[in-house]
Design brief:
Shape: rod-shaped
Radius of gyration: 32 Å
Order of helices and strands: HHH
């Protein structure tokens, strides 16, 4: 024979059950969002290159960042391509 505590749950039982369901769904939704964000970040990352950056690429990046002007870029690029120090 099973023992029942009255004819239902008291206020604390309803509160615990409600809080448990909110916590469960909150954790489940948080886990799904974090998984999708991690997968999205992995798709955004460019493929990793194993070869080091070449001098022309570095020179182009310096021009893009504004570290050198276009005249200096062209002068250094011609020096690189001609093999002069």
């Amino acid at each position: 024979m099973m023992f029942w505590y009255g004819d239902g749950m008291n206020g604390w039982g309803w509160f615990a059950m409600s809080a448990g369901m909110i916590l469960f769904w909150g954790l489940l939704i948080t886990a799904v969002v974090l998984i999708f964000r991690a997968l999205d970040r992995a798709a955004e990352r460019p493929a990793r290159q194993d070869r080091p950056a070449g001098p022309e690429r570095i020179l182009g990046e310096r021009l893009a960042r504004g570290e050198i002007d276009e005249e200096e870029y062209r002068r250094r690029l011609s020096a690189l391509r001609s093999g002069e120090p």
